[in-house]
Design brief:
Order of helices and strands: HEHHHHEHHEHEHEHEHEHHEHHH
Strand content: 5-15%
CATH superfamily: Metal-dependent hydrolases
Helix content: 40-55%
Bound molecules: adenine, zinc ion
Distance between the termini: 12 Å
Structural class: alpha/beta
Largest sheet: 8 strands, parallel
CATH topology: TIM Barrel
Radius of gyration: 20 Å
């Protein structure tokens, strides 16, 4: 067994991946055909759409992201996206995904005539099918599109945070376990969202804001102090502040790190400059994830391969980091314990097999 096979066979969890950002070019074309919206795409040919997906820069990334969001029109579309997400999980041996989704964009920002009940129904149909057909578990993080929380003058508008919180609480029975904050951090700091995050935590939802991706340590500190973050989406730029690193280490707040996403979005120029191994070596709680896999031409197995091939991680380290994602998951305790004991058993067997094949 080589390292690629080992990584493939390792049962994995992923706790930072966006539903819309996980949509493949094939599905984008299918949705555009389904709704006679082919004029929204640069071409009707799959190969051209694949080319269009190749990462160029942040504005191009946003253009694709918004197009995908616009093409999702019906409850069946949400079910399809969830099913496709599960298919990718099964293909990579990802046993659990906590998927971030932005309901406000679909109910309020874009005018589709869809209510939250329609969306929750579609997501749930996909989730049930995912479990039945692939045996994988999905839970949701509903996130606030942070840029819609401010007017042009930079004044805070509570509407989108309040609606998102209502939706997340309503969705708890259908697998919503976390409350997030996504979008472009610049000009959209965490502090004004404190009230909604405090209510979310009171409703037993995890606080899982993005912070420290495009903004620096102040954003991460704000996420911890004002939003009581249970985990941080990205958080890599905490590396710029040694006191903050101590705080993250002391509290063992998990960081949802997305190396390839960070390179594509120019948070770092190259993997050689990426702080993942430093954060890990300093004793912070790190996990590895893909964020928006087809948009960055990333896979979760590929991210683990980077840890091995670029950062020199050994198999025991890969197992330790893979386990972290299960530990940090927001899934209810009973399922978490089952997933963890399956992980422990299978990872131990894999390590034994690897040892034998080396002899
Ligand atoms: N939504 C999807 N991808 C994102 C990212 N990398 N940062 C913030 N919000 C996002
Ligand atoms: Zn993200």
């Amino acid at each position: 067994m080589n390292i690629t096979e080992f990584i493939h066979n390792l049962p994995k969890a992923e706790i930072h991946v966006h539903l819309e950002g996980a949509t493949e070019p094939e599905t984008v074309l299918e949705l555009a055909q389904r709704h006679k919206m082919l004029d929204r795409l640069p071409s009707t040919q799959l190969e051209d759409i694949r080319q269009w997906f190749v990462f160029r820069d942040f504005p191009h990334f946003l253009e694709i992201y918004l197009t995908i969001q616009d093409l999702i029109r019906t409850p069946e579309d949400f079910a399809l996206l969830t099913y496709k997400c599960a298919e990718k999980m099964a293909a990579q041996n990802i046993r659990y995904r906590e998927v971030t989704f932005t309901p406000y964009t679909h109910t309020n920002y874009l005018d589709k005539g869809l209510g939250i009940k329609d969306i929750l129904g579609g997501l749930e149909a996909g989730r049930v099918q995912a479990r039945e057909e692939f045996g994988v578990e999905i839970r949701w993080v509903f996130d606030i599109p942070r840029n819609l929380g401010f007017d042009k003058a930079g004044n805070y508008k509570p509407e989108c945070a309040e609606r998102t919180l209502e939706y997340a609480i309503e969705g708890k029975e259908q697998g919503v376990v976390g409350f997030g904050l996504g979008g472009f951090e610049v000009g959209a700091p965490p502090e004004p969202f404190a009230h909604s995050f405090s209510e979310a935590r009171a409703a037993s939802l995890l606080s899982v804001p993005h912070a420290g991706e495009t903004e620096g340590p102040a954003s991460v500190r704000g996420a911890i102090e004002a939003l009581d973050a249970d985990r941080i989406g990205h958080g890599v730029r905490a590396i710029e502040d040694s006191e903050l690193l101590l705080l993250l280490k002391e509290r063992q707040i998990p960081l949802e790190i997305n190396p390839t996403s960070n390179i594509c979005l120019h948070v770092y120029r190259s993997l050689a400059e990426h702080p993942f191994p430093h954060l890990d070596r300093m004793g912070l709680f790190v996990t590895v994830n893909t964020d928006d896999p087809p948009l960055f031409n990333a896979t979760l197995n590929g991210e683990y391969e980077l840890l091995a091939n670029v950062f020199g991680y050994q198999v025991h380290d890969l197992v330790r980091i893979a386990r972290n994602a299960f530990v940090a998951a927001g899934v209810e305790d009973e399922v978490k314990q089952r997933l963890l004991s399956e992980f422990d058993k299978q990872s131990t067997e894999l390590l034994e097999q690897l040892e034998k094949s080396d002899q």
